[in-house]
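FAQ

Q: What does a record look like?
A: Structure on top, sequence underneath. For example:
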């Protein structure tokens, strides 16, 4: 597979990714006294439009100014506070991004915590539109498409193993993701096969035949013995008495 420079996700089929916006967009509008200390169960992408703020995340300090985008990973505690007189505004979107419905794609990549978006002259208009049109209590189809565009822009710049920092022999981002997913899929297949083998049993059918009396003193047609005939229908089949 050829690597397309500058396109980290270029080799992933469109229908392989599942983006889920887990809540309505947070339209940030924070004053100088704003402060937060929390963690989220899902990923959170924050983009600053005006003002400034500072975040402390796992011993790292991140400064947010207009044009900066920051990823807060799921289950990661962070502390943030405003650092400007001007209101700190922007968007914060909670989301998940799964590969083939099984793998957390964001958790498989080494990404910088925050970046200054390089095409901010154009992206600022997109972020403002996204913020202004976001419903207060729901998400829309349009939002999913616009946010996927913004998230892709962030990933392209934040990917820690970009093309400029890799040698010609180093693995491409998409190949690393595929290998990680294949390892997960192989483990799932092995686990599934083990469970199926343990549960896949077919009880044999038992057919009872009646032998008529033949000796003196027994009336004709009176049953004297029973004989079972077993019909096995699979290699794991065993008698009903031994079935779980």
């Amino acid at each position: 597979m050829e690597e397309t420079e500058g396109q980290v996700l270029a080799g992933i089929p469109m229908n392989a990714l599942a983006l889920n916006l887990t809540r309505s967009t947070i339209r940030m509008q924070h004053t100088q006294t704003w402060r937060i200390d929390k963690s989220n169960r899902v990923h959170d992408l924050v983009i600053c439009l005006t003002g400034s703020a500072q975040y402390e995340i796992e011993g790292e300090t991140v400064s947010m100014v207009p044009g900066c985008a920051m990823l807060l990973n799921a289950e990661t505690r962070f502390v943030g506070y405003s650092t400007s007189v001007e209101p700190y505004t922007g968007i914060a979107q909670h989301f998940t991004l799964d590969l083939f419905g099984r793998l957390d794609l964001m958790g498989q990549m080494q990404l910088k915590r925050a970046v200054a978006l390089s095409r901010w002259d154009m992206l600022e208009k997109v972020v403002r539109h996204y913020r202004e049109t976001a419903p207060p209590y729901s998400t829309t189809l349009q939002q999913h498409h616009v946010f996927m565009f913004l998230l892709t822009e962030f990933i392209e710049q934040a990917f820690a193993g970009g093309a400029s920092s890799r040698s010609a022999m180093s693995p491409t981002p998409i190949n690393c993701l595929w290998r990680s997913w294949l390892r997960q899929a192989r483990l799932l297949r092995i686990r599934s096969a083990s469970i199926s083998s343990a549960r896949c049993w077919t009880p044999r059918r038992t057919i009872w035949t009646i032998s008529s009396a033949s000796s003196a003193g027994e009336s004709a047609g009176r049953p004297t013995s029973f004989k079972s005939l077993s019909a096995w229908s699979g290699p794991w089949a065993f008698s009903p008495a031994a079935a779980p």
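Q: Is there anything notable about this one?
A: The domain at 14-160 is CATH 2.60.120.280 (Jelly Rolls).
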